[in-house]
Amino acid sequence: MAQLIKLEDYMSRYATNMYKYPTQFVRLKKQQWERLMHEYENGTLVEVEDKEEVVENEGIKEKFKNVFKRQRKEEVLFDFQSIVPKTETFNFQPSFTITPSSLEDLKRMFLDQLYNTQLKWASSSLLEKSFINPGYYTDPNLKYFLQRFPDTFFVLYKPIFLLKKAPIELETLLITPSEVICLSILEGRENAAYIADANERFWIQKSEGEDKRFLSPLVGLNRTESIVSTILKANESAIPVKKLLLSRTGYIDFPMSPYHVQLVDKRNYEEWFQQMRNYRSPLKNQQIKAAVSLLDYCQTTSVKRLEWEDTNSITGQEED
């Protein structure tokens, strides 16, 4: 399951410590899946509600309780920093309200819970949160990238970069251990044909006797590749940057396609997909360095989480 390190301009926990969380995610996912497998095979899988929110909130409440106890006992000033952990940790404890009927059912339920948890990690930190678009919980393309690719892949989905104080939405980025892929998806009706012309700003989608003009995906793809390459070069990152046009259910007709753009459509999709799925490489330093460089240029829009706002109102502290 790929790791969602940035979603639009939402607060991301990965941005706070990119060198820690990717390995923590891989380890946590492996541990929890092995635990569930063991419980399922031994018939000890218990139907309970997900405790993730409870665990995190209880941890925060306990820190508040301890600080206030110390304040009443010693009559000292409230120390806000004392309840802010130096580093956050991911917390994922999958549980089910119904018993899975098969191992495949268990895997699907596990991945769906982890998907929802990933959305939380990609839209909040311990101190701040962003208001996520509910549509992302059922977004088929986002689910596809996260649930079908290896744990060592990083995903920036519809990231918004801030360049010269101007926000710019880029195409989806996949950061593998060996390269950065700027990716644009062509989605339409089954067996739709996308007629391209390298010299034209608009393409044509042909489907069931209908023709529809649309802006060439190369416009956004070229802009994304240019910005990403510039940022990485400025940060002395040598990881290759590639461009890819993807149509899982249709056909891309591009007779004179640029040599630097990889085309994947219904004819060669399975071969490409299996190659990506079977990619076996650990996380690499150049990959994490590239992710850090790109996250530094991403815009973040967030607010303080309610518990910290309540703390400020209780203590009378002003926010910076």
Description:
The chain has helices at residues 21-41, 52-74, 103-121, 140-148, 217-234, 269-277, 285-295, 306-315, and strands at 3-7, 128-129, 154-157, 160-163, 166-169, 172-175, 180-185, 193-195, 202-207, 210-215, 241-246, 251-253, 261-264, 303-304. By secondary structure, the chain is α/β, with parallel strands linked by helices. The chain has two domains: 1-42 and 90-170 and 279-306, no CATH class; 178-265, no CATH class. The protein has a six-stranded mixed β-sheet with strand order 1-3-6-7-11-13, with helices on both faces. It has a four-stranded mixed β-sheet with strand order 10-9-8-12. It has a two-stranded antiparallel sheet with strand order 2-14. β8 (193-195) and β9 form a beta hairpin. α1 packs antiparallel against α3. The two termini are 38 Å apart. Residues 49-55, 67-87 and 311-320 have low confidence and may be disordered.
